[in-house]
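Pasting two entries for a bug report.
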Amino acid sequence: MIPLLFSLLLAWPPGTGAQQDKLMPFVENLDADSNVILKWGFSEVQGTIMFQLTVKTTGWLGFGFSPNGGMAASDIVMGGVGPNGTYFMDYHATGNSFPLVDKKQSYTLLSLNEVDGQTTMTFLRSIQSCDQEDFHITDSPVKLIYAYGTSDDIRYHANRRGTKEVNLLKFMPRSRPPDINYLDFVVENVTVPAERTYYHCKVMKVPKLNGKNHIYRIEPVIEQLDLVHHMLLYGCPSSVNQTYEKKCYTEGSGEDCIRVVSAWGVGGGAFELPEIAGIPIGGQNNDEFYRLEIHYNNLAQEAGRRDNSGLRLYYTAQLRQHDVGIMTTGLMVAIGWGYAIPPNATAFHSYGLCNTSHFSDILPDPVPDLSVFSVALHTHLAGRKVQAGHIRNGEQIDFLGLDENFNFDMQQATNLGNIKTIKPGDEIVVECTYNTTNRKGITQLGLATTDEMCLAFVFYYPAIPVTSCCSHPDMNAYTAMMGKTVDQDIEEMLKTAVWDQSSTAVHEATMKRVPQIGFIIDVNKNYTMYEGNIRNMTTTLSVSCRSDPSLQAGPLEPFNYNTSPRGSSSWVVTSVAGSVLLMLWMTML
């Protein structure tokens, strides 16, 4: 079966670049004069990566992967448009000599054309190939090599060659606007209490900017690395008109500020947005006050520790094409609703639902297609796996995010290898897998690291006012299905239950089967509620390599092969923004 990605490209005529940008969102100049330009995108679900090499020449092109930047032991493709048509071949080099043709041709040519003095070659391959003559692409930087000629007679390239090291699966674009401006949102000399978990909030006013600007880069400013677990910055509505600083989730600590602007968490670094989109700041219709939230994880419960951490936001007056939005999806953190994860479970599953067909219930304007470029997955200490499934017309068509080896200390926003489109009416189902074999009591939803969450933060454009789209199981329906009376204390019932393998399995299946109560909330705290159901998602397992990329099932086909997502294919933003759900729920009470 030909994958959907492959068949779409075969159907496109040359020059449909705007459509291809969705599939190949990353661009890098391989030479200093911009004569050699590489575009690429990848699908971890399909296990394939697509390249488009454009060179200012009418001769042959060569591109490859090298262990050291030279010819020896490199994996190479060469092609061009000759007098008798196109040519394209997979090679490998054994030394500084003409490369040898591979016995197995592991690259699939998608298009090759020559227009206005430049040649463009688009091709597909597996991320990890079973062919020993091919280079295995990983989430580490790789040395890319290129060469080209002035004719279709493939011979020595002279100085028309080069190499550049690029991380293909963890690529982060770097903007260089002429106006390097930034704002620091930091706390000053905060005393961290001798408590294991403490949330500190500071509402501050942004300096007046000359009209609307776009944030394009976010950097952490961390003083106490062993204390600061995560930080979030929220935009505030016009109802917030004064600064203050105190413990979070107390009256007047900025509960009205619910628009997530940026975030950082342990293990993360800087985050740079794609070049066509930015987070709006300044101007008449944008926030004037912002709320910084810092989660301090004082494991030793030391007294007298002080901190001056925060976030640095780089902005530019050169506006980009789109405003970026960040939407929280998954399981609603609703304390007191009786959600419980049993102890001694090796793989307990929790679910959250977002049905976008209800966006129009609270939005006055028609809802556009949303282009998703990044997703951050989040659970706490018991989390082992998180996946965000993309559902259309009742069937799963893709994963928006997938981490089969979740690491609580390295929670990075997954850089999608191609832009994924959420259409009105699509659903997002977030599934989390927990291991509680080291726990003796139930685990509930909440802010502490020993509590749990199940969330996916979706980074997209163009921005719409929706800030949260989550759900919670209908616990009244759960009580009825379990043969209990509604007036019984559900939390007490779950705490005192006898949990074994059988009762845990029944509990998990019932929690998935009961209706979901969905909540959609916008930046002004308007909300709508609806009822929905959790749909089944594809099971994925790990595999070390793929054979022929042209024979893989596409996302609209049944997934009858194994996948091996690299857990950190990412721009290095960390979004441990789970506490936003609790805050949203509190503001609705």
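Entry 2 (this is the one that rendered wrong in the viewer):
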Amino acid sequence: MRRSEVLAEESVVCLQKALVDLRAIWELIGIPEDQRLQRTEVVHKHIKDLLDRMIAEEESLKERLIRSIAICQKELGTLCAELHVEPFREEGEITILQLEKDLRTQVELMRKQKKERKQELKLLQEQDQELCEILCMPHYDIDSTPVPSIEDLNQFRKHVATLRETKECRREQFVDIKRQIILCMEELEHTPDTSFERDVVCEDEDAFCLSLENIATLQKLLRQLEMRKSQNEAVCEGLRAQIQELWDRLQIPERERDTVAMAMTGSKAKVRKALQLEVDRLEELKRQNMKKVIEVIRMELTQYWDRCFYSQEQRHAFAPYYAEDYTENLLHLHDAEVVRLKNYYEAHKELFEGVQKWEESWRLFLDFERKASDPSRFTNRGGNLLKEEKQRAKLQKTLPKLEEELKAQIDLWEQAQSKTFVVNGQKFLDYVAEQWEMHRLEKERAKQERQLKNKKQTETEMLYGSAPRTPKRRGLTPSTPGKVRKLNTTAMSNATVNSSIRPVFGGTIYRSPLSRLPPSGSKPASSTCSGKKTPGAVRHGPNKENLELNGSFLSAGTLKSFQI
């Protein structure tokens, strides 16, 4: 049983007890029956009125709850539609009071959500308006519904975040471009003369409209200023190069150059003006020293002729080089020729450097060839002979390879230029072939001279006897006894002794009693002890293996050059 029901039964019992108590009092007092009836009716009326009022009040409460439920349901439906959420539904059987409470709570929650969304929408619209005004962009178009949906708000937030990023990016771009513009204006000593330039340089950065059009105009202004700056720098560099060239031609002292150079760095307007004044001063000085300047230019011209491998015919083709009438016109002709040759050399620098590399390698190869035919190279210490042989062998391999590479480059050059590439008046390959042929002929001539010299010396010694001479001991250190005995045995078995090594063996040199002719222009060879050439000596030269003497090696070919 519910407690309310228990209370109701207790109320009935209490009412009955009260009536019993009233009747007892009335009985005790002695109130007549008719008055008792009246009093009982009064009690009944009071109790009934009280209960009726209470019932009416509760009925009124029920009606209010029902009306509140209806109102809340209607408002809740509207709010759900505005907020784009599912309608509210109660689950299970609930009382009117609980339903009204739940509906009222839900309505309050929906109202709060609606208020928050509208406040956020207003804030986002304000931010969007501010950003769009700065970026000069159209406002965000959102649905005209009173309350935005969560999806609409999310899209609006993303849009505003994108605008912020765009603003920061453009602001950084603007600040960077503004800094460069200010630097260029300072370098050019330029004062802002348009309203846009003044807005960029002088106005507050936050007040500048960061539209794409303004950014593009900024970039255009920066390009114009940079172009002017580059042109100014190019002019200043040209003036510096002209000054340096005039300094070299006029042979201006270094002290005077340093004094002028310190005040002419940069490319500002005042520096450009100072450079131009220095050029004018040097030009006037050049006109006063025309002959000296032309001679310096001729030296420079000769250097470019050498770099471009000009032949004598090509050099003689420039007649002003040999003129002696030192005039302004002659100077201009030389200047023009130097500029032409300089451009020609720079345009084909790689090819000329390749030919120069071949020339240097060829000279080095010829130097090694001359050293290879020099008998004194065997007295060198420290492994120089081995190094030279390795370098010579390497050059013999790299020279043909370099020639092939140059041939391929020259073929491409001749196809592009539609003319023949010449070195010292010849085709490069003809020039190379001529150098190799001259080298071969030189080797043949040297070989023939050696053969003729040996032949004449042999005939002289056979006719008049050998010519004794004291051999040089420098560079020969005492050998060990074993080596001495071995060499003595070999020398005696071949019936001849090389005059360059006989002193080491302790042999005695005798002067021939016969008169002898003066030696030829070549260095005389040493003779045998008997003054006659034995057959063993002839066999000994070309067939003898390398002899080791005091740490040096004598090849068979070298030993032959010392024998008769």
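Dev reply: Rendering is fixed now. As a check, the viewer should reflect this: Strands lie at 422-423, 426-427, 547-549, 552-554.
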